[in-house]
């Protein structure tokens, strides 16, 4: 049986990590029930081992996800035959339904596993995902006889090939552009926008020092692949501001909700503040079918494009929606602060502000809608525009946007905290949220998002789609 070597081991590692998390929770239960007569030294050693096991399990799960996510997405998209018109059309929906499944799983986790972990058992809360992943691994392996595999010969690594393009271009840096033009004419290269862009790399078409050895020059395709990788850099950079805004939905949005009236029509039931994030997943689950089954066919009829709109248009649309969501979040926070002041709660952070948590639903819902456009669009864009052999690397680059964005978000918050907390003043992020100014922060992010969107649009005007990508 042939097992996909780039996917299967990552699933196994993730499953082991979840199993170890369940084991660490079990050890915690045993330690906590040791009673007063337990030997202090033995108990301390047991707790130390439990902490080491717990963090090792978390790192193992993170390591598995880092390898699993980009590989399994690329592997799934590679199952479609781009030469078949019907399969090529179906491939445009793959990333939509992939993200639908991811968010449906997240929604289930937030609504069920959170309750199990808080009210029943942490051991059970970790064990259930481990069991589900084990079942998923079995189902995945059962399909190994039907998967399509990319058969590779003894070709050179694409990373090495692209690196050689840059090295040769640097070595030939003194070569005149007239010599490059002569070489392009000899090879029959047409004067297209792609050949004119990053023309410096065209110097890799020539052998260094006038050598005629063909093994020392790069092919036209190799140069085009190197250019395609460079073109992704501005899109990656201008998407970071979206990632910074995205990080707030699981932090400050939740902190807002924790201060508000979270009661429901069900007597005695309060919505947990952390579960408010489920509105994003719910929004995605609701909007993706609408996007895929209604929006795309209507847009296709108007534009004639297979996917309705281009990938860059899709990403930009989500950035617009994200900016609107931040403005709404700022307005809602202004209203919350005003109500807190009216009821004399500015110095009573532990008292609930008499404002329904349902006021937060629009900003959560818009974040979900923005994800349908930008998040899914970025996934497909970085898969589609990378050379075939580097598509899993492209998806890793997509994931790095949100990793780097989270770090930048932390840096921005720290900088604002230092700037606004001097002279005895409450900072924008004071522990007493009624004295803080999250509204200012959300407005700042909205302005930064607008600036980022403007830069993004400027970059898209000069972007040239890779010729091996889908038809636009």
Question: What do these coordinates show?
Answer:
The chain is mainly alpha-helical and 472 residues long. The protein folds into three domains: 8-142, no CATH class; 158-218, no CATH class; 231-461, Up-down Bundle (Growth Hormone, Chain: A). It has helices at residues 8-32, 40-77, 85-119, 122-142, 158-171, 177-187, 193-196, 220-238, 240-246, 252-258, 278-303, 311-342, 361-384, 391-420, 438-461, and strands at 260-261, 353-356. A two-stranded parallel ribbon has the order 1-2.
Query: What is the strand content?
Result: under 5%
CATH superfamily of the largest domain: MFS general substrate transporter like domains
| CATH class label of the largest domain | Mainly Alpha
Strand order of the largest sheet: 1-2
Main sheet properties: 2 strands, parallel
In the CATH classification, which architecture of the largest domain applies? Up-down Bundle
**Gyration radius from CA atoms, angstroms:** 26 Å
The total of beta strands comes to 2
Q: Under CATH, the topology of the largest domain is which?
A: Growth Hormone, Chain: A
**Poorly predicted ranges (pLDDT <50, ≥5 residues)?**
33-39
Helix content: 55-70%
Count the helices. How many?
A: 15
What structural class should be given to the helix and strand makeup? mainly alpha
Count the domains.
3
Silhouette: globular
Give the overall average pLDDT. Answer: 80
């Amino acid at each position: 049986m042939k097992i996909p070597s780039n996917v299967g081991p990552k699933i196994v590692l993730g499953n082991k990590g979840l199993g170890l998390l369940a084991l660490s929770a079990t050890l915690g239960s045993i330690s906590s029930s040791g009673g007063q007569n337990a030997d202090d030294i033995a108990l301390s050693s047991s707790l130390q081992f439990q902490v080491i096991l717990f963090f090792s399990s978390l790192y193992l799960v993170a390591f598995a996800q880092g390898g699993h996510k980009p590989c399994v997405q690329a592997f799934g998209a590679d199952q479609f035959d781009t030469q078949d018109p019907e399969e090529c059309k179906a491939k445009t929906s793959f990333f939509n339904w992939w993200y639908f499944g991811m968010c449906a799983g997240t929604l289930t986790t937030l609504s069920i596993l959170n309750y199990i972990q808080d009210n029943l058992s942490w051991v059970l809360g970790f064990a259930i995902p481990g069991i589900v992943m084990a079942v998923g691994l079995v189902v995945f392996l059962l399909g190994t006889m039907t998967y399509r595999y990319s058969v590779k010969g003894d070709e050179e690594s694409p990373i090495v090939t692209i690196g050689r393009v840059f090295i040769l271009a640097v070595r030939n840096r003194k070569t005149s552009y007239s010599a490059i033009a002569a070489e392009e004419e000899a090879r029959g290269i047409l004067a297209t926008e792609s050949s004119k862009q990053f023309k410096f790399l065209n110097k890799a078409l020539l052998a260094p020092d006038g050598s005629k050895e063909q093994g020392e020059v790069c092919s036209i395709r190799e140069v085009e692949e190197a250019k395609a990788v460079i073109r992704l850099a501005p899109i990656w950079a201008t998407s970071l501001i979206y990632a910074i805004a995205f990080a707030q939905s699981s932090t400050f949005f939740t902190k807002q909700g924790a201060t508000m009236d979270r009661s429901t029509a069900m007597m005695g039931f309060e919505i947990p503040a952390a579960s408010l994030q489920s509105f994003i997943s719910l929004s995605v689950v609701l909007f993706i079918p609408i996007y895929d089954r209604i929006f795309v066919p209507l847009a296709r009829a108007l534009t004639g494009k297979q996917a309705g709109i281009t990938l860059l248009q899709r990403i930009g649309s989500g950035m617009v929606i994200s900016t609107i969501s931040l403005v709404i979040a700022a307005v809602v926070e202004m209203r919350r602060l005003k109500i807190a002041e009216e009821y004399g709660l500015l110095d009573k952070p532990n008292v609930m502000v008499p404002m329904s948590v349902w006021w937060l639903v629009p900003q959560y819902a818009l974040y979900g809608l923005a994800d349908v456009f930008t998040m899914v669009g970025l996934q497909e864009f970085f898969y589609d525009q990378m050379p075939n052999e580097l598509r899993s690397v492209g998806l890793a680059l997509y994931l790095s946007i949100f990793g780097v964005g989270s770090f930048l978000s932390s840096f921005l918050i720290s900088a604002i905290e230092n700037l606004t907390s001097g002279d005895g003043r409450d900072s924008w992020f004071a522990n007493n949220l009624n004295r803080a100014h999250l509204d200012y922060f959300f407005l700042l992010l909205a302005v930064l998002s607008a600036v980022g969107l403007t830069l993004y649009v400027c970059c898209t005007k000069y972007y040239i789609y890779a010729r091996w990508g889908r038809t636009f």
